[in-house]
Amino acid sequence: MTIRVPLALGALLVALALAAPAAAQSSVQTLHFKYGPVKIAPGQNTIEIDENQLKPPVDGWITGFRPNLTYENGTVPRVDVIHLHHGVWLKNLRPLFAAGEEKTRFDAPPGYGWRYRTTDQWHMNHMIHNLTPTPTQVYITYDLDFVPATAPEAAGMQEIDTVWMDVAGGNAYPVFDAKRGRHGDDRRLTYPDEVRGAPRVNTWTAPVDGELVGTAGHLHPGGLWTDLKLTRDGRTVRLFRSRAKYYEPAGAVSWDVSMTATPPDWRVQIRRGDVLSVSGTYDTRRASWYESMAIMPVMFNAGGTTGKDPFTTDVDVPGQVTHGHLPENENHGGGRLSGLPDVRDLLARPLANGSGSIPIQGFVFGQGDLSSPGRTGRPALVRRGRSLTFVNRDARQTIFHTVTSCRAPCNRTTGIAYPLANGKADFDSGELGFGPAGFTAAANRATWATPKRLKPGTYTYFCRVHPFMRGAFKVKPKA
């Protein structure tokens, strides 16, 4: 992670336009901001927190938020090339809005808005993946629906604050693993409820009476839904389930998804001392999902009185998706052969260096890389009960790599839905590299050894950070 405060932010574009026809005489404006350029190094996968001066020029109310990621010319990068892991807009060091690669849009109900003052300090917490070995630069763009404080509509505006509901308690890098097939007959994992020993930091206690007026969830591929619940006097009721609607032909395995949000008339009355909690549910039948998230920002109107009592009225109504299929998710992958060999047909050989280690350097596995010709491309051979050790030499350039099992032969085209962490044996190295603990994806080590329990056979793997990287090794019997 790098922290740079202040930071020269580069290009700024603020376009003011009426959001409704002139005949309606609406004072709602659309403000378009272009944050950047953000320079993305080859293979970058780090968190940055920068000062953000791209905000409305006058006091007023924000009533809508729509995020995106673009190149300089305005085109949107393919998700399998440049990936918006997350962006969090901080106001006075508290989360205001957030976006992941599903690019959920947030709209306050009519008559409600986030109060904005020009004296507010804004920062941007962003994590952008470069899934390629090529440097580039991008812009984080966002549109704000904005009502100036001098507009007639501002007079009766109800103020909302963002309550940040996160299963990991709002850590800088709030992630958990949802491993395949280990969580009951339904083959689903609900975090933190079904994980023994998981910290219970997924709650918020209402400091005053008020009303909740909106929410939507954030998940990673494999995620099915997030649940928002309320507990009062020992009784618990679900307030809303934000479902993931996948447009992905292969199902719940990619970023080709949108989340459902509460309808505009959703209102929930809460009391001081009520406890909100959030959980996230992932499908663990088909693959393991590493470094997953489950977040549900909630719009809270302190002192509001128009909500319904969730213990007498069913407020858990169906949600509405905030957008449809996005064109940047067209490359699903896995549909055809990529020219990589089927390593099951190749002879394996012991490591050439005799050290038992495989270097990872220049986005290539030192032995058994499916893209390497000749002897280097032949799978490494290890005897059962022993390990192969991988060493990330790219870590010196702050490039993280993983060694993650995938189903053999794991040689089809890369896309947002392929490859998956679905090998016949689950293993994952974590992101080999270094960075501040809790603020980065780094495992803070450069080496990892394969499990000694693996049975004889062929094992294929890929890098979750750069999924075009594929490799293989073979385990032979003890004797």
Explained architecture:
- The chain has 479 residues and is mainly β.
- The chain has 3 domains: 1-158, Jelly Rolls; 160-331, Jelly Rolls (Sandwich); 333-479, Immunoglobulin-like (Sandwich), CATH 2.60.40.420.
- It is built from no helices and 34 strands.
- Strands 2, 3, 5, 8, 9, 11 and 12 form a 7-stranded mixed β-sheet that branches. Strands 15, 16, 19, 20, 21, 23 and 26 form a 7-stranded antiparallel β-sheet that branches.
- Residues 1-24 have low confidence and may be disordered.
Concise account of the structure shown:
With 479 residues, the protein is mostly beta strands.
Give the topology, please.
Elements: E1 2-4, E2 15-18, E3 29-40, E4 47-51, E5 60-70, E6 82-91, E7 94-99, E8 106-107, E9 112-116, E10 122-130, E11 136-148, E12 158-159, E13 161-166, E14 176-178, E15 188-191, E16 203-205, E17 210-215, E18 218-219, E19 223-232, E20 235-246, E21 257-261, E22 268-270, E23 275-283, E24 289-292, E25 294-302, E26 320-321, E27 357-361, E28 364-365, E29 380-383, E30 389-392, E31 404-406, E32 447-449, E33 457-462, E34 470-476
Parallel strand pairs: 1-4, 9-12, 27-30, 29-34
Antiparallel strand pairs: 2-3, 3-11, 4-10, 5-8, 5-9, 5-11, 6-7, 6-10, 13-25, 14-24, 15-23, 16-23, 17-22, 17-25, 18-25, 19-20, 19-23, 20-21, 21-26, 27-28, 30-32, 31-33, 33-34
